[in-house]
Write a structure and sequence with these properties.
The protein has 2 helices and no strands. It starts with a helix and ends with a helix.
C-alpha cells in the first residue's frame, strides 16, 4: 500500500467521522435554551431546573427540621430534669 493511498483513506475516514458527529450544544427549538450557555442553569428550561433542584432542596429542609426538632427535645429534657431535681 502506498503512502498516498493510506493518506487518502485517512482523509476519507476523517470526513466520514466529521459528517456523522453529533452536534454540540442544545438541539431544541425552545427559545429559553441558548447555544452559548450549554450546561449552565440558564440553558435548562425552568420546569426541568425545578425538577432537578427540588429533591436536594427538600433533603436540606428535612435535615434542618430534624435538627430543630432534636434541639427542642433536648431543651425540653434539660428543663424537665433541672426542674424535677
Amino acid at each position: 500500500m502506498s503512502l498516498e493511498h493510506t493518506a487518502s483513506l485517512l482523509e476519507e475516514n476523517t470526513d466520514i467521522q466529521r459528517q456523522s458527529a453529533r452536534p454540540i450544544g442544545p438541539t431544541t427549538s425552545d427559545p429559553d435554551v441558548r447555544a452559548t450557555a450549554t450546561g449552565t442553569p440558564a440553558a435548562i428550561p425552568r420546569e426541568h431546573l425545578i425538577r432537578r433542584v427540588w429533591p436536594p432542596m427538600m433533603i436540606g429542609v428535612g435535615f434542618v427540621l430534624e435538627v430543630a426538632w432534636i434541639v427542642c427535645l433536648v431543651y425540653a429534657l434539660v428543663r424537665f430534669l433541672l426542674n424535677f431535681f
